[in-house]
User: Fold these one by one.
Assistant:
Number 1:
Amino acid sequence: MIAFVLTRLMQSAVVVLAMSIIVFVGVYAIGNPIDVLIDPGANQAQRQALIERYGLDQPLWRQYFGFLANVAKGDLGTSMVYNVSVTQLVFSRLPATLELVLVSITIATVLGVPLGIWAGYRPDSLSGRAIMALSILGFSVPTFWIGMLLIMTFAVNLGWLPSGGRGPVGSIFGIPTSLATPQGWAHVILPAVNLSLFKMGLMIRLTRAGMVEAMRADYVKFARAQGLREREVVFGHVLRNISIPLVTVFGLELGSTIAFAVVTESVFNWPGVGKLIIDSILQLDRPVMVSYLVMVVILFVMINLVVDLVYARLDPRVRLKGGE
Amino acid sequence: MTFQSLRAGVAALAILAGSAMHVSAQDLTLGLRAGPDSIDPHWSTLGSQAEALRHVFDTLVGVDENLQLQPALAESWTPLDANTWEFKIRKGVKFHDGSELTANDVKFSIERIPVVTGPMSMTIYTKSVDSVEVVDDYTLKITTKGTAPSLPNDFIRLFVVPASIGMDVRNEEFNSGKVAIGTGPYRFVSWEPKGDLVLERFDDHWGEKPHWARVVRKEIPDDAARVAALKSGQVDMINYVPASDYLTMKNDASLDTVVADSVYILNVAPVVKDVLPQKVKVDGKEIDANPLQDIRVRKALDLAINRQVLVDVVLEGLGTPATQLMPKGFFGYSDKLGERPYDLAQAKALLAEAGYPNGFEIDFTCTNNRVPGDSVVCEALAQMWSRAGLKVNAQALNGTVYFPAAAREEFSLAMSAWGTLTGEASYTYGSLVHSKNADLGLGAFNRTGYSNAEFDKLFQEARNNLNDDERRALYEEASFISMEDRALIPTVILQTVWASKKGALTFTPRVDQETRAYEIKPAN
């Protein structure tokens, strides 16, 4: 078990290293960040002075090793645009994204899994088909479009909810979050619903597919023959058996939603990390790009680790071995 | 699926939240496309940075809505001799911490800039300063490197901070509010990057008292989200209304719109070097000659542009035809330059005369979404030139890709926007049109290789002349020569749109597009 976790952490270190090289080479290929940032009123001498000050006149390998040396000292760098440490910058925006993702993934799971179970349990019923039809809408209609529709309906026409932004921040168990205030909930509900639709569609379809297959399996017949009630058959046996793909997808979606909630964040003007990273890419703010992506890689590795641990818990046949 | 239950839940939430959503008549909430990158006023020359920090910090010299100079923290300024300026500082100006402004604070601010400024370096505004001397508390003597007639124009972005904060504070101390101390009409309350800037009125400000006691400047970069925030009443006013929404909003009885010219002009830059970076093709074969070196070809490009169509059709009315690199009324604007006619027949004739009766094939590169309308104007120009017989491969690139490539001079024919932010000719013509000369710091953004001895001579004569009238005449002549020579081909002046609730607010739009809370007043 410990060996397993250690191997995973070492793998992630390799991925982080590879990723940082890709970002450095990528930015280098696009061009000099100074040419994106510089003021049109600057003259040649000022441009040259800036390039030297940020070490951009150095060969790429030297810039990269300079970065690694700083990372070894625990310093991920300073944003060229904001001149504050990138860790501070990213962590100042991460809570907003986390609470949005948390609410949306909860909506997706709490609604999606039961709906999928029903659609799989009664695949030929009218309600089952209706659920499937709606789930197709969930992941075929573009997110920004649904977002705009939600804003037009609930914010502009009905005036029930704010059109965007994050509400006032309160505190739950010492963690600053807008989920602690009623106004905060009013702000989070539309973007969270918007963000959850795709995942909900996915959850419904996955659960249904698993259900349809499992309901034909022998163990269901035996369970029924044993005289168990339908509720016990579905939730006690079938659900447990179809959980593995659900947990996998849940984990992947959790990670990708945290990292790339950017469409919803822009439409609803949510002050999360997604907007920050897009702006940083557009301004070639390399320190922010590198450290953000490093954090995303670590996040994915951690989530996958947890997913694997959950597998073992759900299915006793799964063994955790180091290095495999 | 869950729509009905969702509605019910949402309604319940709204009732919960509604009680807390109370807005006072003294509050103003603005929805803006961009905000500051820092609260340190000496960090960056970014336009949205200056716009926001102007509420907290005053500049030494002010500008009116047409960017012409007016007194601010300096009451007056006079050149003592060719290399010295004297600035008289306003008396009785209070900082937000209660201390009084003196010439020493101004000196400190000038000297702080090179120490703390970032990649958008503010040293462009202090580059001609050699030394600063405090004569007495209210008099400042500035010695310049060479003659610097435009020093007061440079100082329209010189924000003054108190010397008592010391040289060691950086962006973090400003962002936290610890040293965000200015003399401006508003005090700093809070800010986070890409988030809201919250301000409260400073009652001891030396100028006119602003109406709003509390101002929230919300940063909403997404166009649709900004429009939705106004329509849902979350904000009182928005800037940069997208062209696609403008007509609907103009006809919306519940909204007011205000349209005004900006300083930004879309200029086509034809490269006149001996060898083009992207070679042109005649009858499908690359040729070594550069047709753009021929003034007849550049004139033909100009004549084939139908500027009225660009404005009326392509930009949905949100523009003005441009004849030179600056809007009317700026220092050095030439009245001699008439309207640019649209004449396709003459354009074809000039191309034939220059030896290209069947035209040629050329790459044309523009910015995409850097300013409103750049990519659509780009496509439209390609079509207009194709009617004159050219084959134009238009490509609109994101600024992140465009600017580094432009700096490497990889384009033969390009278009981007340029704004004369100082309101006078030396800023624009010195950077874009003057021959490249690193020693003089001129031609830094001259990517066409254009070099005209007559223009350079006039420009340098003007640059060293302290007499305003003579200098103006020299710049007008220099503008005239370079524009007649088609050094660059200006197309349209872009316009900006603000929108607010019907009959709620009044304000005078500014050519620099700034949205200043203290210049916005309730309508009645």
Number 2:
Amino acid sequence: MRRLRGSAFAAGVAMLAAWTLLPIYLVAIGGFGGPDAVYRWPKSFWPENLSLDTFRRFVAIGGIWQATEQSVKVALITVVLSLALGVPAGYALARLRFRGATTYRLVILLTRAFPVGILALPLAVSFARFGLYDTALGVALVHTALALPFAVLVTASLFVGIPRELEEAAWVFGCTGPGAFRRIILPLALPGIAATAVFSFVLSWNEVFAAAVLTLRHRTLTAFLLTVLSESPLHIQLAGGFMLIVPSVLFIFLVRRYLFAMWGIASR
Amino acid sequence: MAELLIEGVAKSFGPVVALAEATLAIGDGEFVALLGPSGCGKTTLLRIVAGLEEANCGQVLIGGRDVSALPPRARGLAMVFQNYAVFPHMTVGENVAFGLAMARAPAARIAKQVARAASLMQIETLLGRYPAQLSGGQRQRVAVARALAVEPAVLLMDEPLSNLDALLRLEMRAELKAVLREAGTTTLYVTHDQTEAMGLADRVAVMHEGRIVQIAAPSDVYRRPASVFVGGFVGNPPMNFLRVAAVSGEVRLGALRLSAPMEEGGLLLGIRPEQLAVVETGGFLFRVAVAEPLGTHLLLTGETGGQRMRAVVPPDATVVAGAELLLAFDPAAIRWMDAASGRAIGAA
Amino acid sequence: MRRDRLLAYALIAPSILFLAVIFLIPLGQTIALAFTRHGTFGLANFARMAGDLNFRNAVANTLGLVIVVVPLQLALALGMSMMLRHLKRGRELILWIWSIPLGVSDLAAGLVWLGILTEKGYLNTILYHLGVIHGPVSWLTYETPLALFIGILVAEIWRATAIIFVVLVAGTQLIPAEFEEAASVFGATAWQRFRRVTVPLLRPSIQTALILRTVLAFEAFAVVLAIGGQNFPVLLSQAYLWQDTNQDYGVAAAYAVLIMLITLAATLFYLVALRPRAGEVA
């Protein structure tokens, strides 16, 4: 009885894992299989005449490579901006006592409970006026608004995790405030900050709505795929989907230790 | 190496007074322990001296120089933290060298000082390791070595032994005493553990509710506590206090007649449990409620005349719960306390 | 202390400034835009929005999707986090696999499931081998609304259960095992332990997860566009259509305001419905 329950449990775990992985596997063989695989009937569940050819053709479609480059550019700017704005604020929340700290934390939390992407609608108009429309920076600004709450809250939890005594010891043994931050706090927080950077990157890489609204000719990969959805053949769409997923899966692997710091902060 | 002068330093957090006008003079090379229960303000005082906390008023002078307005790094002191605060991303050697490196000392001097501090704390073989590879006791040694390496004018220690287990604490205590004596560093040491304070310090400053209530040599604090609080906090088991009444300058306790420090009125008779001795005749009646054999002695808890009392007797005495004994003591061992204020009567 | 305060304000000022410019101003603009049509203030945009053929469908589809998908996901995620809690070997690996969809965008998820659910897709292949169908069948057209709805539902469950799962796992890690052990010592069955001890203690995490998830559910539109195209309008895809295809910013803004209001209402609902009881430490 006990063994039966144990194997039922294991089967459940395995099935849920398969449920997660199988679709990714299928899009991979679909994307790499080329038109033959996509339009074959009935389908084979094994990779057949797998080739990089489709992929090469996919990349060669007008604009797709540029779109990927644009996506990377936007994501990198987002990473830089969200860290530059978020790390100092996180430090302040974690270490300094100041009036309004609770309010600030609440405001940051609330932005997370808000469909931020929608703000791209009016920004499209303002950005056009300031020459930011259809630029990487423009999209990255909205993506930073998305990533900033995470950057602030995650770095705050990182800094809270570093004992205050370490910083005080640095002061006592001759460091200035910024010196102690650079020599002690930053090196210790670096892995977590890197995870935050990766996370901001994924957030930006995946964002569709704002990217689609704020670009016209310089599409990001998601925006590009969205606009060619109805026009391009299925195998190219699948290859695009696979291309979108790969970095995300890798990134989740890289930041898996920090997932809980990202999402685990309950709204208390 | 210098003397440390704390003058009228006070600190409150909002309406809460953490520290009420503390004044303390520590001589060059002297070791003073700040002793008190948690929340008594001892750590606040230490942190004010370190510059980690800002005082509302008062001054801190190190070697005659007013350092009150200076940041921690400019005060010429070193500190050992409760959780050691050994930097986890630096090797032991880098940790010990940290203070000197920050002061941009020449490499030769750093090497010499690190070697000296490491040999004092016996961590020469650990210099290349990272703190994560060390035991708690070893980290403690690194923290002390890091503080000694800078040859500070004043060394501050905040409960440095509280995270060690009992046996290690005993060992480190003796070692710290030897090392600090050799280094001759002026030391301010915060602890809530009275054996630590008594064992290490040249003088003990007992703190209670934000005030320094007694500053004296360990044996004086023990024998001649300045208040009921000190008598109860220092010593394990604590001092007994019996409510008694003086009649015509005399206090009667069973068959004992003791000359009181006042003619008439109520007062407290303070007597250490180990000053009590079992006698055949005379003395006063003590009813034993619990007898705890502790190896070196037998601890008796009970009551006399309705008042709670503890007595320490030799371990070979055969006493069981419910027994009634006659106890007596040397009148010279009495510490009389004012019943209203709780302060010692006739204290210097 | 004063120095601390000044430093703190200096450190948070850039982020506040940024959020004011990229968040508050557009927020105001959206509202202003929504209530202005041809220079006059009023509800004209909303009237136009409500008069649109697809409006009713979009509202029904969006709400229907949220109402069906969120409880299903919560139940699934609770089950998964409980399974993870009792998993002895391979915990790290399973945790990673189960969180993978967290990194998958809704567009990519839509494309993945398009490949499975399409006419000559993998689902139909299985059904064919099982003898249920005899040739390719299309499920994702406006003629098969229920199948389309279920297809999108499945894609959403696949994609976005992970976020609830991760929040809940983070929450369960904060619950000491002693509580459950105490309950079992006092004779509680596994189900009773779950129902009476774990779930109540998890309530703050459940609240966070539901708020996050619901906001994201209203934001999802690419998954719908990829699978259903314009056959399955939702609020955000309508907003996108009005902005991008019709170039009518006023109506798009009206949609945005509507989405914000619904999201806000949902958040408030969760905050009230799952608030800690008086005297309970949240």
